């Protein structure tokens, strides 16, 4: 008598046939947890089904491996296999097309989500409008000859600039004195020695003290040496 599908043996038999692959009792117990079946009951059902020839099994040491009986399945011939392969190929192509379509839709959704909402656009418009008004006010003042930088601010910036130029000039002179003292009697090639030490002149990095010196405020420029 075949086991009923609503008892333990019936549930186990249906599962083994559906899986149609080698299983041990732990595999079956893990998959059938939703039926609240204990492992001992599942093991008993597997052994009973095997003894009654409902499923096949093999022993590997202490481990038993169970498998659905293969003679209950229709084995396709070559023509049927080829047809199944063709159908599988078509399904794979359809799946690829569906994935491509999904990717395109997701891309469109992402693009739409990245766009500003109407509320955000209005807020941005207001912000830009305020910035334009401020810039127009400055432009009007400039056209009217209004000084936007106070004399105090101008003097502070000029003093800072003069101090930095003087500091640069002093450092440049100090380096020259030290370099001349080191290389005066040195047998080494000065260019190679400079590269060996990693020394760079202003000219090597594209700057010139003279060009900055010309930006000095009137009355504070150093006279050029003749």
Commentary on this structure:
The chain is built from eight helices and two strands; from the N terminus they run αααββααααα. It has helices at residues 8-19, 25-31, 39-51, 78-114, 118-143, 151-183, 190-197, 209-213, and strands at 55-60, 63-68. Strands 1-2 form a two-stranded antiparallel ribbon. Helix 1 (8-19) packs across helix 3 (39-51) and helix 2 (25-31) crosses helix 3 (39-51). The longest helix has 37 residues, at 78-114. The model is unreliable at 1-5 (pLDDT under 50).
Task: Please outline the helices and strands.
Elements: H1 8-19, H2 25-31, H3 39-51, E1 55-60, E2 63-68, H4 78-114, H5 118-143, H6 151-183, H7 190-197, H8 209-213
Antiparallel strand pairs: 1-2
Tell me the number of strands. Answer: 2
How would the global form be characterised? elongated
Oligomer: single chain
Distance between the termini: 122 Å
The unreliable regions are 1-5
Q: What Rg do the Cα atoms give?
A: 45 Å
Helix content: 55-70%
Query: Widest sheet: strand order?
Result: 1-2
Kindly report the average pLDDT value.
84
* SSE sequence, one letter per element: HHHEEHHHHH
**Helix-strand makeup class:** mainly alpha
Summed up, the helix count is 8
Strand content: 5-15%
Largest sheet: 2 strands, antiparallel
Keywords:
226 residues; mainly alpha; elongated; 2 strands
């Amino acid at each position: 008598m075949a086991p009923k599908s609503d008892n333990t043996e019936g549930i186990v038999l249906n599962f083994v046939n559906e899986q149609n692959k080698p299983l041990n009792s732990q595999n079956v117990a893990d998959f059938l947890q939703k039926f609240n079946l204990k492992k001992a009951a599942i093991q008993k059902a597997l052994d009973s089904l095997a003894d009654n020839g409902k499923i096949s099994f093999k022993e590997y040491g202490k481990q038993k491996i169970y498998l659905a009986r293969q003679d209950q399945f229709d084995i396709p011939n070559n023509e049927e296999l080829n047809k199944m392969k063709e159908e599988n190929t078509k399904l794979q192509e359809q799946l690829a097309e569906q994935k491509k379509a999904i990717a395109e839709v997701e891309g469109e959704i992402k693009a739409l989500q990245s766009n500003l909402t109407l509320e955000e656009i209005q807020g941005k418009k207001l912000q830009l409008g305020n910035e334009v008004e401020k810039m127009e006010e400055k432009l009007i003042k400039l056209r009217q000859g209004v000084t936007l930088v106070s004399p105090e601010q101008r003097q502070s910036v000029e003093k800072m600039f003069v101090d930095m130029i003087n500091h640069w000039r002093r450092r440049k002179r100090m380096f020259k004195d030290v370099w001349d003292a080191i290389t005066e009697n040195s047998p080494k090639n000065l260019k190679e020695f400079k590269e060996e030490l990693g020394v760079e002149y202003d000219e090597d990095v594209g700057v010139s003290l003279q060009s900055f010196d010309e930006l000095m405020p009137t009355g504070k420029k150093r006279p050029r040496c003749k």
